[in-house]
Amino acid sequence: MRLTLMFREYCSLCHQMQAALQPYQAQYGFALDVVDVDADAALEAKYNELVPVLLHGEVEICHWHLDEAALQAFLAQHSIVPCNG
Fold first, then answer.
1. What does the alpha-carbon distance between residue 58 and residue 28 come to, in Å, rounded to a whole number?
2. 53-56 and 31-36 as β-strands: parallel, antiparallel, unpaired?
3. Is 9 helix (H, G, I), strand (E, B) or coil?
4. Burial bucket for residue 42 (CB in 10 Å: 0-12, 13-18, 19+)
5. I want to staple 14 with a disulfide (CB 3.0 to 4.6 A). Which of 21, 44, 52, 84 is the partner?
6. Which InterPro entries does the protein's record reference (predicted)?
């Protein structure tokens, strides 16, 4: 499974969400693609005030802060189980 984090290098919330996702990546084994929205005008226009945004494809899981309940519900809905479980 691959998730995408819409990100800005100068955004402290972006760095916080990326760090908060690391334990979940280790536990569940999903890949995380980090995409700089400022490198693409269309992405910047779409996600400008929402970053950081955590996505699976085009489906938003959460934005601004990691919503752990929403992430866990998403993982459970997609039958993603902990790597050690």
1. 20
2. unpaired
3. coil
4. exposed
5. 52
6. Glutaredoxin-like (IPR008554), Thioredoxin-like_sf (IPR036249)
Q: Which helix (H) or strand (E) holds 61?
A: strand 59-63
What is the C-alpha separation between 33 and 84, in angstroms, rounded? 23
Segments of the chain with pLDDT less than 70: 84-85
How is residue 84 written in tokens? 């050690």
From residue 16, give the alpha-carbon distance in Å to each of 5, 28, 40, 54, 64: 12, 19, 22, 12, 9
pLDDT at 84: 64
Q: Is 43 helix (H, G, I), strand (E, B) or coil?
A: helix
Is there a contact between 36 and 65 (Cβ–Cβ < 8 Å)? no
Domains located in the chain, CATH noted: 2-6+19-77 (3.40.30.10)
